[in-house]
């Protein structure tokens, strides 16, 4: 498992598996957000299978599957709402979509430079999002 912290309460990861859930509990996560559509996964990694594993461990599971074309304002708002149950681990294929959703949810709340620096520290260069993130400085 490759967990990358964007903030102390929000981390992203490539696809996780049911056997990873005990480590998520141990790491202190309270919510797991699935940003990966089931069409990208085998049945054993479907949202349904992951929900069962996550919820049986006592964590909250939120399904918010996105692709780049379906990254709508409604999906961004749903991610922001789910992030309120932190500490949160959001996953997709590589962690990039989960990082983009976090970034877009922060637009207008944090300066663009701060958003981009946080994702860059986690290994995600999202500089192409700058026009959608608002002003650079505070």
From TrEMBL:
This is TIGR01244 family sulfur transferase. Keywords: Transferase. It holds the Pfam family BLH_phosphatase. Residues 2-108 form the Beta-lactamase hydrolase-like protein phosphatase-like domain. NCBIfam families: TIGR01244 family sulfur transferase. It comes from Rubellimicrobium aerolatum. GO terms for molecular function: transferase activity.
